[in-house]
Fold this protein.
Amino acid sequence: LYIHDLAMPSKWELQRELAYRYLSLGVVKSALEIFERLEMWEEVVKCWQSMEKPEKGIAIVRDLLEGRKAEAEVVIARGKAGSDARKQTLDAAREAKLWALLGDLEPQNALEHYTRAWEVSKETSGRAMRSLGGYYFARGDYPNAIVSLKKAVAINPLLSRSWFILGCSYVREQQWEGAKEAFTRCVGIDDEDGESWNNLASVYLRMGE
C-alpha cells in the first residue's frame, strides 16, 4: 500500500554506492568498471592511480581539461545553474580540481600544476592549497607549508588533516602558539584523534604549561 512513499535510490545511485564499497575493500578493477560506466572520471583516475598506472589517469585528466570528456555530475550541475556567472564559477572550480589532480599524478610538475589550480580558481581552491602545503611539507620547506595550509584551513576549516600538517609545520619551526591552535582544532574536529592529543600535550610541555 505504501510502496510509492519509500524514498528508493535510483539504479545509478546504487551502482555508485557499490563502486565505492568495492574501492574501500580494495576491489579496484570492479570499482573502475562501474565508475567508467557512470562517467565518474575523477574516481576513474583515482582507480588507475591505485593500480599504479598513472599514465592512464593523466590521459583522462588531459581529456577532461581539453573538453574531450565531461563528468556526468558536472554536466547536470551546469544544466541546473541558472546564470552564466554561476556556470563560470562551476567551470573554474572544476578546472582547478583537475589541475590539482594532475599535480598528484605528475610529481615532477606538481608545483606548477598546484599553482595553476590556485590561479584558475581565483584563489578559492582549498584543494590546491592543501596540495601545495603537503608538497612543501614533504620537502622540508615549512615556512611555505605554513603559508599554504593557513590559506587552506581558512577556506575549509573542517578538514582535520590540514590542521594536523599545519601543526606539524609550526612544531618544526618552533612556533608553539600556532601549533597549539592547530592541534586544538584537530581534537575539536575528532576528539578520538590520539596523535593530535599527543602532539598537543608535547606542545604544552614546550610552552611550560
